[in-house]
Design a protein that fits this description.
- This protein is an alpha/beta fold and 295 residues long.
- The chain has two domains: 9-168, Rossmann fold (3-Layer(aba) Sandwich); 203-292, N-(1-d-carboxylethyl)-l-norvaline Dehydrogenase, domain 2.
- The chain has twelve helices and eight strands.
- It has helices at residues 17-28, 44-48, 57-62, 74-81, 84-90, 103-115, 145-155, 171-199, 204-231, 241-257, 263-277, 288-293; strands at 9-13, 32-36, 52-53, 66-69, 94-97, 119-125, 138-142, 161-164.
- Strands 3-2-1-4-5-6-7-8 form an eight-stranded mixed sheet, with helices on both faces.
- It is elongated, with a radius of gyration of 23 Å.
- The termini are far apart.
- The model has no long low-confidence stretch (mean pLDDT 96).
- Bound molecules: NADPH dihydro-nicotinamide-adenine-dinucleotide phosphate.
- NADPH dihydro-nicotinamide-adenine-dinucleotide phosphate (NDP) binds next to helix 1 and helix 4.
- NADPH dihydro-nicotinamide-adenine-dinucleotide phosphate (NDP) is lined by residues 14-19, 37-39, 42, 70-73, 76, 79-80, 99-100, 125, 128-129.
- Belongs to the HIBADH-related family.
C-alpha cells in the first residue's frame, strides 16, 4: 500500500460537546478516530459511527500519530497528559491542545512536551460546537510551522478556516483570551441591558432587534479603533469621551433606580473619567486602552 492510500488517523481526548464535535468531524471525513474520555459512556454515539473506543488514555494516544486534546482547561489536560504512562506513550508523537487556557499555560505545556520528546502545537477554537465540520468553524494554531504543515491535512477535516499565527506557542491562546474578552464583555453588556429594559417594561424579545442594530455598528468600529490605537491618535472628533462618560452615567442611574447591579458600568465609567482627569477629555473612548494598561 502506498503512503497516499494509508488511512489517516487521529486520537481525540475529551468528549464534552466540543470534543464530540471534533471526533464527529474526523469520522465524517474518513479519518480513523480513536476516542477517550475521563467519564466513560460519552462515546456511544461516536462508536456507533465507527470511532474506536480506547480503554485508557495511554491506549488512546498510542493508536495515532496525532492526538487532539479538548478538555475544559489545562489543569484537565495536564491531569490526562502528565500521567506517566500517557507521557511515555506520547514520545515522538504530536499533541494539538485545543482546550482553552492562558498563553502562560500553553508555554508551560510546550516546555513539558519538549522535555518528554513530544511534538507540540497549541490551538484555540473560536466558534461553537455546531460549526465544527462546516465552513463556519474558526481554528487558531501556534507552534512550529513545519509540524503544523505536517498535520494540516488531518486538521482540515475539522472544516472551516485554520490560521497558523506563528511559532510562538502562546500566540493562539493570546488571541483566544483577547477574543473571549470581547465575547464575554459583550454578553455581559447584553444581559445587563435586558435587565434594565425589563425593569422598564420592555421584554428581551422587544429589545433584541434593536440590540442587533447596536451590534452591527461594532465591526466597522473595531477596524477604526484598531487603526486609531495602533497609530496612538485616540481621535475623539466624532464622539469625545466626555460625551461617552455622560451616557454611561445614565446607564448607572437608570439601573440603580431599579436596584439593578451597575458595577460593571461603574467600572467602565471610572475608566473614562480617569482619561478625562488626565486631560484627554477630547479624545475618543479608545484612549481607555492606555489608562487600563498603566494602573
Ligand atoms: P467543557 O469545557 O465542559 O469540557 C468538558 C470536557 O473536559 C469533558 O471531556 C470532561 O470530562 C473534561 N474534563 C474536565 N475536567 C477534567 C479532568 N480533570 N480530567 C480529565 N478530563 C476533564 O466542554 P466542551 O467540550 O464544550 O469544551 C472543551 C474545550 O473547548 C474548552 O476549553 C472550551 O473552552 C473549548 N471551546 C468550546 C466551545 C463550545 O462551543 N463548546 C467553543 C469554543 C471552545 P468528563 O466528561 O469526564 O467530565
Amino acid at each position: 500500500m502506498s503512503e497516499h492510500t494509508v488511512q489517516p488517523s487521529v486520537t481525540v481526548l475529551g468528549l464534552g460537546p466540543m470534543g464530540r464535535a471534533l471526533a464527529g468531524a474526523f469520522l465524517d471525513a474518513g479519518v480513523r478516530t480513536t476516542v477517550w474520555n475521563r467519564t466513560p459512556g460519552r462515546d456511544a454515539e461516536l462508536t456507533g459511527r465507527g470511532a474506536v473506543a480506547a480503554s485508557s488514555p495511554e491506549e488512546a494516544v498510542a493508536a495515532s500519530p496525532l492526538t487532539v486534546v479538548c478538555v475544559v482547561n489545562y489543569d484537565a489536560s495536564d491531569a490526562v497528559l502528565r500521567q506517566d504512562a500517557v507521557t511515555a506513550a506520547l514520545k515522538g508523537r504530536t499533541v494539538v491542545n485545543l482546550s482553552a487556557d492562558t498563553p502562560g499555560r500553553a508555554r508551560d505545556t510546550d516546555e513539558w512536551a519538549g522535555r518528554h520528546g513530544i511534538r507540540y502545537l497549541d490551538g484555540a477554537i473560536m466558534t461553537p460546537a455546531p460549526t465544527i465540520g462546516t465552513d463556519d468553524a474558526v481554528f487558531l494554531h501556534s507552534g512550529p510551522e513545519e509540524l503544523y504543515r505536517e498535520h494540516r491535512p488531518v486538521l482540515a477535516a475539522l472544516g472551516g478556516g485554520h490560521t497558523h499565527l506563528g511559532e510562538e506557542i502562546g500566540r493562539a491562546a493570546a488571541y483566544d483570551v483577547a477574543l473571549l474578552d470581547v465575547f464575554w464583555t459583550a454578553m455581559a453588556g447584553y444581559t445587563h441591558a435586558i435587565a434594565v429594559a425589563r425593569a422598564e417594561g420592555v421584554t428581551a424579545t422587544e429589545l433584541a432587534p434593536f440590540a442587533q442594530g447596536i451590534a452591527a455598528i461594532l465591526p466597522p468600529l473595531f477596524t477604526e479603533f484598531a487603526a486609531d490605537i495602533d497609530a496612538g491618535t485616540y481621535s475623539g472628533d466624532l464622539n469625545p469621551i466626555t460625551s461617552a462618560a455622560s451616557t454611561m452615567d445614565h446607564i448607572v442611574h437608570a439601573s440603580e433606580a431599579h436596584g439593578i447591579d451597575a458595577s460593571v458600568m461603574r467600572v467602565i465609567e471610572g475608566q473614562a473619567r480617569r482619561v478625562i482627569a488626565r486631560g484627554h477629555g477630547g479624545d475618543g473612548f479608545s484612549r481607555v486602552v492606555e489608562v487600563i494598561a498603566h494602573r
